Fold this sequence. Notes:
Layout: H1 2-12, H2 30-36, H3 57-91, H4 100-107, E1 114-117, E2 135-142, E3 145-152, H5 163-179, E4 183-187, H6 208-219, E5 224-228, E6 231-233, H7 235-242, E7 245-249, E8 254-256, H8 260-267, H9 273-277, H10 279-284, E9 291-293, H11 296-308, H12 314-322, H13 333-339, H14 351-356, E10 365-366, E11 375-376, E12 378-382, E13 385-387, E14 389-390, E15 393-394, E16 400-401, H15 407-419
Helix pairs in contact: 5-6
Pfam family, one: Carboxyl_trans
GO molecular function: methylcrotonoyl-CoA carboxylase activity
Catalytic activity: 3-methylbut-2-enoyl-CoA + hydrogencarbonate + ATP = 3-methyl-(2E)-glutaconyl-CoA + ADP + phosphate + H(+)
Amino acid sequence: MAKVHGFCRALFQRSSTSSRPPVLQRSPSFRLGVRRSTLSSSEAPFPVLQEPTLACDEAARRNRDVNLSLFAEIRSIRAAIEGSDDEVRRKDRSSRKLTVRERIDLLRDDGGEVLDVGLFAGWSMPYGRVPNASNAVVVTKIAGETCVVSANIWTFKGGTLYPISVKKQLRAQEISMENRLPCIYLVDSGGAFLPLQAEVFPDRYHGGRVFRNQANLSSMGIPQISVVCGSCTAGGAYIPTMSDEAVIVKGNGSLFLAGPPLVKAATGETITTEELGGADIHCGVSGCTDHYVESEEEGFQVTRRIVSSLNLSRRRRREREEAVEPPLYSTSEESFASLLPPSLSHGQWPALEIIARVVDGSRFHPFKEKYGPTLHAGFARINGYVHLCHQSLVVAGALLSNYNRTLPETSILTHIIMLRK
């Protein structure tokens, strides 16, 4: 305290021997000294509150009984909401699909907290009970980054969207936008709930605003990643195609505006779900999805790798710099000399072999591997930082061309550069 008093005296005191006020010099340790000072109870800025004594024990008992019953009711509602998935799984033991909670648990960091948003939304609506608004929204950490996750609850009405589902989806996007958090969509939806479609789309803050928000998130540079875990019909199909990167699960995931029954009714053609909009079609032909996986578990591993490549956290960038892995293969002049053709017109560039000798740990995360097979595109780290390389030009993952570029290859180049612009 003596330092504080001395500083205050110097602040207001003028020198009697000079016409000019003295220059005040603050001790470099002044702030540190004040913060570390130990105050006695009499000098503490705020007194400690004592637990009040209730004037009437009967009033306290009534309060306790009422509130404990409310707490029990909340717990029972929560159990009913979270138990609805398990009931569907018991009825359909042959399903390869995971419940929403299982998906979120596989996606998030081990031991990380999960903040549910709007868990009780939709519990008592004029049009009936919609558990968790048929759309689970949580804030959690994925690969060390705080993310917003919005997941369709396929175990309730096939994940169809009610008016309250749309409202909750918009809220998730608002949280992502206002806090600049990556938005992860676990898509498994049959589109709008048709008996209530008149209340889903028409107004300013209804279904169409979901896609407006996606465009705005993209323009703000906030990453959006979709995992297509099931059938995505009509409005449910737009979200993955408007995301920055999309993962699709073979056999379960599908994208189309109308399913095989409607195609049959409209054209007379008989077609399967996989042929119409499965993983092979959208990864290898249309290019709507970027990562092809065999199972949901693999899909969430790929999603975590995508999040880790975003370079969002400065702290994580420092950690990556400190833990740089050398390439696993020889980086000598002789090894490169044996790989490179004499000229571009003689033979193909062994792109992956070159990448393996340049990037950290020879690790490479491919992008649109089945779309445009003449181009190797993806992400890798060099000295801890994620890069995108094209031949000798470093722009921002690792990317080398083997042949002349066609439309798919050009599309990949444009897409991947926009992802990390």
